[in-house]
Amino acid sequence: MSLIVTNDLKAVLPLEEQLAATRRLVKETLSPLTVKIDLEGLYPESFLRQLGAIDGFRQHLAAARPDGVTDMGAAIQTMAAVSHECLSTGFATWCQDTCGWYLQNAVDSGVRDTWLPKLASGEVLGGTGMSNTMKAFANIEPLRLTGRRVDGGYVINGSLPWVSNLGDNHVFGTLFGLEGQGDRSVMALVDCSVEGFELRLSAHFTALEGTRTFACIFRDVFVPDAMVIDHDGAAFLRRSRAGIVLLQFGMGVGNVQSCIDLCRDVEPLLGHVNGYLDDRPDELQEQLDDAVDACLALAEDPFETSDEFFREILQLRLAAGELALRAAQSAMLHTGAKGYLRTAPAQRKLRESYFIAIVTPAIKHLRKELDVLSQAA
Ligand SMILES: Cc1cc2nc3c(=O)[nH]c(=O)nc-3n(C[C@H](O)[C@H](O)[C@H](O)COP(=O)(O)OP(=O)(O)OC[C@H]3O[C@@H](n4cnc5c(N)ncnc54)[C@H](O)[C@@H]3O)c2cc1C
Fold first, then answer.
1. Structure confidence by residue, pLDDT tens digits, 332-372
2. Residue whose CB lies within 8 A of the most ligand 1 atoms, among 141, 165, 202, 216, for a mutation test
3. Which of the listed residues 96, 359, 366 should we mutate to test ligand 1's pocket, taking the one with most ligand atoms within 8 A of CB?
4. How many CB atoms sit inside 10 A of residue 73's CB?
5. Which CATH number does 15-125 carry?
6. Domain at 234-376, CATH homologous superfamily
7. How many contiguous H segments (helices) and E segments (strands) does the chain have?
8. How many Å apart are CA 184 and CA 177, to the nearest integer?
């Protein structure tokens, strides 16, 4: 493992330049592949590496910027530009951004200094195995990974059913419970090439097929202290949870905007009859613009840890999931039979929008957690 010199940091592009470069890259490199990604499960690795090269994964990572700024809003807008074209790639971008966020929030600077620059540049691609953690902390299911302390690290056993943006040379952040130590847990970065770890391709999906989503099997996997992000998993989750959920808005905003654009595209031809539909593009646009304003305001302080702040994020995340479902249904109804063709964007958006509704925190998870928070208030 080589140590990176962190004081030699690359300056980030100003936001407008960065967004323009992302949109250009999406148009030239990603959009010719979208149907292949969706229908054949092509993994957009080359696009992701190029996105990293134009600072697409760096904006929210203060430790990877010479100005030390955390621009969560810029990361969300970049992800939205990608998700507008393809949610598989938008989700892979979220995985990468979130893995970087875990390292930004690491207690141990060793793991951060070694891995964060590589994730920020896209040299190493990474994911996040935290759905189980978030569901476990919301009392939906038990933790699926357990570890025991050994000399110099932990030995981990268990499995996670789905983790995306992975491959033999990738890494991902995850949390495991400590055997025989009650609620104690540890957050760590796992290197997919480590002994005893297996990536198993066990499922195919109706959307998001290009995300390289695997089951992760741990058989006595040794995770050294050098890969530990925080020996106190609960404290880590509290510190990083706002950023994890805020980043997801990039997927929602891109998906909803693309549905609105599809409705608008057919207006000259079908406006005379589409006027009878609900959820017209101007109505959806107003709701999306309000949600974006609220999201960018919350994104100004991703290190805030209070329950009240997190409740606001969860409420907005719920609204975004519900808006995505409505916008995608509207795109189907507005585009009609053409939208129902196998390669048409509208039907792809419909399938993608359900992912926004079911990816952790899913709509049902959000409603449960908001209910618990309102009872505690
Ligand atoms: C394409 C794709 C990519 C994904 N990528 C990732 C990723 O990168 N990282 C990640 O962490 N997650 C990922 N996920 C998981 C995702 O975030 C959600 O957690 C998941 O889709 C919803 O979980 P679920 O279906 O197990 O939940 P639910 O079906 O709601 O189940 C909730 C819990 O209840 C349990 N349960 C169900 N029935 C019973 C029963 N009868 N009795 C007792 N318990 C029961 C289930 O086992 C589960 O533990 C991905 C999912 C998909 C589809």
1. 999 999 999 999 999 999 999 999 999 999 999 999 999 99
2. 141
3. 359
4. 22
5. 1.10.540.10
6. Butyryl-CoA Dehydrogenase, subunit A, domain 3 (1.20.140.10)
7. 13, 8
8. 6
Q: Which residue has the tokens 């507008």?
A: 84
- In the three-class reduction of DSSP (H, G, I as helix; E, B as strand; rest coil), residue 126 is classed as strand
Quick check: helix, strand or coil at residue 10? coil
Amino acid identity, residue 90? G
Q: How many A from CA of 138 to the centre of ligand 1?
A: 13
69 CA from centroid of ligand 1 (Å): 34
| Confidence grade of residue 3 (pLDDT, cut at 50, 70, 90) | very low
> Which part of the chain has CATH 1.20.140.10?
234-376
Dump pLDDT digits (tens) for 42-73: 999 999 999 999 999 999 999 999 999 999 99
Nearest CA to ligand 1 atom 42: 141
Topology, domain 129-233: Butyryl-CoA Dehydrogenase, subunit A; domain 2 (2.40.110)
All CATH 2.40.110.10 domain ranges of the chain, comma separated, are 129-233
Helix (H, G, I), strand (E, B), or coil: what is residue 88?
helix
Query: Model's pTM, two decimal places?
Result: 0.96
Residues with CB under 6 A from ligand 1: 95, 127-131, 140-141, 162-164, 205, 208, 211, 213, 358-360, 362
Question: Which pLDDT tens digit goes with each residue over 289-311?
Answer: 999 999 999 999 999 999 999 99
Atom of ligand 1 at shortest range from CA of 141: 49
